[in-house]
Amino acid sequence: MIRLVYIMQKARILLGCFAVILLVTSCSKKQKGSQVSAFVAAKEQHVLGKGYSPGSLEFNLTEVPFSMKGASMACSARGTNDQKGLYIWDVSGRGEERGIIKIEPTFKGEVVPSKIVGTPEKLRVSTDFGNLEICFDGNRALRFYSKKGVGVRLSVKQSYALPKNNKQFRIIQGDFLRYMFTSIAGNVQISTDKISKGILIDKLPEKDGTIDFVLEEYESEWSEHKYANTFNDAVEKVKNEFSEWMEETLPLNKKYDHTRTLAAYINWSSIVSPRGLLKRSTMLMSKNWMHRVWSWDHCFNALALAEGNPKLAWDQFMIMFDQQHELGALPDCMDDHSLIRGYLKPPIHGWALKKMMAMGVVTSEKMQEIYTPLSKWTDFWMTYRDDDKNGMPQYHHGNDSGWDNGSVFAENRYVEGPELSAYLVIQMDVLAEIAGQLGKTKAAGQWHKRADDLLNTMINRSWIDGRFVSKYSGSENWNKNSKSLMAFLPLVLGERLPAQIRKKLVNDLWSDKGFITPFGPATENIYSEYYTKDGYWRGAIWAPTTYLIVDGLASCKETDHAKELAKRFVEMCNNNGFGENFDPITGASLRDPAYTWTASVFLLLANEYVN
């Protein structure tokens, strides 16, 4: 049955695929040469509508959090069995729990059933008696409003209230979280909640049925300032900001308008302002559960932003280098409050930088900024992760590869992944190019030689009997039962690989039943003994690996194959949203359902490969 679906899908996609036309025109804007980027050209050709139309996007808060660019607060209805309902979540690294303030609509002081609908500009909580509406009034404050007698109850765990004046009081929660409650219209009642060891805040309407108040998070102390004149003013400001973001989002075919808007919203709303360890505006992986930034995820988000918002894209690319260790290693992941150095993530940064350079968004100043940090990151792998001194670096754990539980690590965690060396070859090539542009002629030659040497070592050691294998460090053994997609990732080297190796890799990828599914490439062959339903890196389809494989195929001049895989992934996201990963058999979204690198890869693939 799977094979039949695959054949039908393949036939449909092949009939629907056309070559991507590179639009060339003379333009009054200052650009390098006469070639106009696809981003600019698509807008000039009116491929899609500009901006954002209010009401054109509604989303389910059990999947997609309600937040905005810069905010560390999010509203979510995605809870555990003992935490159902609508909650304000803290997505910084300061809080011990995510769902910290429960929001319940009331009527005449009693909690009433409700239905929740999110839009980018506001949240609507509908009851039989009227609606409670919530929006952001600045990226640190949530504003609540109703005009038909509907009130609201806030249940704040492990907290107490400190009055400031007759309109304001502070909410103190734990060691880090602080909120200012400001009443604009309506009456307030505060009581103790013995169960949660916190407080209950009941906001009751004025005689005309109106409530209007603001809940604002702060750090050390709240500073005196005003809010928007009206609730609608606050809504309008957010709407305009998101509309500007839509203008900067990669243009796609009109049939993806709705999904493009959702992808844009997920990425926009997942950004937090600089704070603590995060020195720049940072796109988190999600404001659901994965509210951190990891040291390869950020590269895909940078690529999706590069043409429309190059400054923010550069911030995403550089964010992990801001916390680079003195030995050269990047953190595994971090938030504003903490970081992890015990693991790494794969060095795809040279690969991503190469693509950004091709887009024309990396200036000579940026090359100067990145040259030393990227050199140190490259040297780290070659110096501190080559324990057997054979010239080929190794991972110390599956986490280091990004494929946490990948099958190549099932028997031994000290693995010399050929894709690791492939990434570093690309990185060395990019460093050679940058060195040349910066006038470092000798260094450029050295990087070229190091890249050639590593490529030869990788092929000699890892290309066995017509396929790439991941040998254990200091050993000639590898997990021979593994059928991981990792073996095909060296395709990213493109024409750097010998022609016969490229041809064999492409042929095996498409002829070995179980890798290419109707929805994209499975990370573990679905007929492998290691394949597991919802097995994370043992079968699920992931955005980054799909993009790397597609880019590798394109680099090998396998354009039709690249387009076909891109189309499958794009259609899957169009139908099933932006999960952390996907079931390779059904295409269903798995794990975190609002993941930024998935949204970014959707935008990239749909923009580059799908008409």
TrEMBL record:
PROSITE patterns recorded: PROKAR_LIPOPROTEIN
Any GO MF annotation of the entry: Glc3Man9GlcNAc2 oligosaccharide glucosidase activity
Superkingdom of origin organism: Bacteria
Mannosylglycerate hydrolase MGH1-like glycoside hydrolase domain boundaries: 293-598
Keywords assigned by UniProt, alphabetized: Glycosidase, Hydrolase
Keyword Hydrolase (UniProt): yes
Single GO BP term: protein N-linked glycosylation
Listed Pfam families: MGH1-like_GH
Keyword Hydrolase: yes
Annotated family: Belongs to the glycosyl hydrolase 63 family.
Protein name as catalogued: Mannosylglycerate hydrolase MGH1-like glycoside hydrolase domain-containing protein
Natural source organism: Snuella sedimenti
